[in-house]
Design goal:
Elements: H1 4-8, H2 10-20, H3 24-30, E1 35-41, E2 45-50, E3 55-64, E4 69-76, H4 82-90, E5 103-111, E6 113-119, E7 122-128, E8 139-143, E9 157-162, E10 165-167, E11 171-173, E12 177-182, E13 188-195, H5 198-209, H6 213-219, E14 223-230, E15 235-239, E16 245-250, E17 267-273
Parallel strand pairs: 1-3, 9-12, 11-17
Antiparallel strand pairs: 1-2, 3-6, 4-5, 4-7, 7-8, 9-10, 12-15, 13-14, 13-16, 16-17
Helix pairs in contact: 2-4, 5-6
Length: about 270
């Protein structure tokens, strides 16, 4: 189980990796989607295989290494090279928001695992986001146009990030398909922090609003990633696998003045039911 302290540094891990690089019915429908395979190795290795045609697809990742891995899929804007996008982020001290004029981090997830998304034709880069150090390589791939792109299975619920808050139901059901979208203008993440009960969840919200993350961590029982830091317009979905109970939905990205989004309203109590 990841701890809250690890969650808080996820945003810096995304930035450092970039800078260092020179319902249930939906689950059954998933088996009919094409699959893009992402192999994550340690803190540096990344490889892509499988389907690279446009439309809905399963993104299935594996991880070889200690602990848990993480990866991201970046679509470069037309006419933009990866070095250009890299330079933009580097020149803004690793701020992933600087990527937006040049491309989009469309999928950001833990490995191993499976998420679903929709990819459009274009040039892509797969990033290993497991560690804070520089990655040894990136995996370039091209998504070609499909004459009959697959459709994304319906989700039981959709959670949406905006500036600065969350929209969507505050009760989610374990074992159902949950879609997560970034409808804001900034990079956001969507994580659920476990709490022992509703009262503790409310306390965690208050502590996060006050910027007292260390005290909030003491009340946390773990967390579930719905989406790691991702660009405006990003969308992915997966089957929710979480213990029923109370959680705090939160985004730990930072503004230019250093304040976490949790201090600006991106936290709320939700419940996971059977």
């Amino acid at each position: 189980m990841k701890r809250l302290g690890s969650l808080i540094v996820v945003s810096s891990a995304v930035a450092a990796c970039v800078v260092g690089l020179a319902g249930v019915a939906g689950a059954s429908a998933a088996s009919t989607l094409p699959t893009l395979n992402v192999a994550v190795t340690g803190k540096t290795g990344i490889a892509v295989s499988g389907s690279t045609t446009s439309g809905a697809l399963n993104v299935t990742s594996t991880f070889s290494g200690k602990g848990q891995g993480a990866f991201g899929l970046v679509r470069l804007n037309d006419g933009v090279s990866f070095p250009e996008a890299l330079h933009a982020v580097q020149s803004h001290h690793g701020d992933p928001n600087a990527l937006t004029p040049f491309g989009s981090l469309l999928v950001a997830a833990d490995a191993p695992g499976t998420v679903q998304t929709v990819l459009t034709p274009g040039n892509y880069v797969a990033l290993n986001l497991t560690g804070n150090g520089p990655a040894a390589n990136v995996a370039h791939f091209t998504v070609t146009s499909s004459s009959s792109p697959a459709a994304l299975p319906a989700a039981a619920a959709t959670e949406t990030s905006i500036e600065f808050g969350f929209k969507g139901p505050n009760v989610l059901h374990d074992g159902t398909m949950v879609r997560v979208e970034n409808d804001g203008y900034l990079v956001h993440m969507d994580s659920l922090i476990g709490a022992r009960n509703k009262a503790d969840a409310a306390k965690i919200v208050g502590l996060l609003k006050a910027g007292k993350d260390n005290k909030a961590e003491r009340l946390a029982t773990g967390f579930v990633d719905l989406m790691d830091p991702a660009s405006p317009g990003a969308m992915q979905q997966q089957i929710l696998d979480a213990k029923p109970g109370y959680y705090v939905q939160a985004c730990f990205m930072s503004t230019q003045d250093g304040r976490e989004h949790t201090m600006l309203g991106m936290e709320r109590v939700i419940r996971i039911a059977k």
